[in-house]
Design brief:
alpha+beta; three-stranded antiparallel beta sheet
Length: 75
């Protein structure tokens, strides 16, 4: 995740770009950083879900191979 935070003194606002999406404007830097924190948590939970899915898929594939082996040995 890349973000750019600029202060626009003419308007007294903070301009936040996250991953080159449309800019959002905030009155304080803290408000902008809270949004960055939310994005980070969202991305981390997305990565965690993907890792969990991959682990389940791997375990499922291993179980499928074991079942196939077991059936072939006990026929």
């Amino acid at each position: 995740m890349t973000y750019t935070l600029n202060f626009i003194s003419k308007f007294g606002l903070w301009e936040l770009y996250v991953n080159h999406f449309h800019a959002r404007f905030y009155r304080t830097r803290d408000e902008a950083m809270k949004t960055v924190t939310r994005y980070r948590h969202m991305l981390q939970s997305e990565c965690d879900r993907e890792e969990l899915r991959a682990a389940r898929e791997k375990q499922s594939f291993a179980q499928m191979r074991w079942d196939s082996y077991y059936e072939n040995c006990h026929e």
